[in-house]
Amino acid sequence: MMEVREILLSLPVDRRMVETFLQKQGLRLEEDVEYTVIAVEGERVIGTGSLSGKVLKCIAVEPALQGQGVASQILSELVNEAFRRGRKHLFIFTRPDNEKLFTPLGFSPVERLGKELVLLENWANGFVHYLVSLREHRVEEGVSGSVVVNCNPFTLGHRYLLEYAASRVNTLHVFVVEEDRSVFPTEVRFRLVQEGIRDIKNIILHRGGSYVISSATFPSYFMKEPGEGTRLYGRFDATIFGKRICPVLNITHRFVGEEPYCPVTSIYNQCLQEILPQYGVQLEIIPRLEKGGSAVSASTVRKLLANERWDEVKVLVPPTTFDFLRSKEARPIIDRLKKQPNSRH
To answer: Would you state the CATH architecture of domain 2-124?
Structure first.
């Protein structure tokens, strides 16, 4: 009789069991999983699946048992756990040849990357609704460009990039990554960008939602180091942006900052260079703003904040960001930074 149960990856024997099973199916256990279940018959593992944020991943079933309801029971347990955690809009990354396992269970495709990858979601037409919400901001006249930023927090480097990009186009669409996996919460990051660019009149500010550098489209972005899937996910995110989002907003240019520090972002920039021209979008890489011979970066600001070196912070951020950092609202964030000064993004 089959049973589906949770296991603890913190236990080495359980972790090895899942890793070994996934390897046999050509998959690997990703580092960001929060919750994992296995399907067993007696002592034999016949399937597994994991939850990470709003993404169901690392799902595999023994080939001889596919189509016999094992995947359905694994998925049901993962969905129930996600709902218990308040997560309703869910995604699955899988290989296109596995898509048929999940479509009968209420998941529909968002986008595919050839024969390598397909992203599914459980909200019918969720991506279409997002695109429709963007369409009202389309500008027909002139050249439209785009920038995607995280801003953890908003620095003079970000300001320089956005100011430069805005000078190169008639309309600049700026997407703020909405995934709440940074030390500075999403709403704070969005507000700091909004306040820091108020004087640049040709910028339209957007929330990235679930489809622009999110745990659904580019999970590797939020991991500490580049892994085997970083380039694949980077190409996937670039494809969604170039193929689906750019046409809706009439975007023909995307601007990114040169990346001397973060290997994941550097790989992502390479993916953008490879993918975007296929959809008529030109990528321009902008040299980073420097202060004192070093590139201005949010990671530097976070390290300085962890040590409360306020004079050094002040020369790296706009006045609006600095005012926030000195406020009572920022105190819990700075306290967290003291405990994790080397956090990514």
So the answer is: 3-Layer(aba) Sandwich (3.40)
Alpha helices in 25-118 (DSSP H): 70-84, 99-102
Chain-centroid distance, C-alpha 241: 13
Task: Please name the fold of domain 137-339.
Answer: Rossmann fold (3.40.50)
- Residue intervals of the chain classified under CATH 3.40.50.620 are 137-339
Lookup result for tokens 């590797």? 220
CB contact set of 51 (below 8 Å; sequence gap of 6+): 33, 34, 35, 36, 57, 78, 81, 82
76 phi and psi angles, rounded to 5 deg = -60, -40
pLDDT in tens, 282-313: 999 999 999 888 889 999 999 999 999 999 99
The answer to whether the Cα torsion of 105, 107, 108, 109 is positive or negative is: negative
In tens, the pLDDT along 71-106 reads: 889 999 999 999 999 999 999 988 888 888 888 888
Range(s) for CATH 3.40.630.30 in the chain? 2-124
Token digits of residue 125: 């037409």
**Considering the entire predicted model, what is its pTM?**
0.90
Both tokens of 243, joined, read 């193929």
The residue whose two tokens read 């030109």 is 282
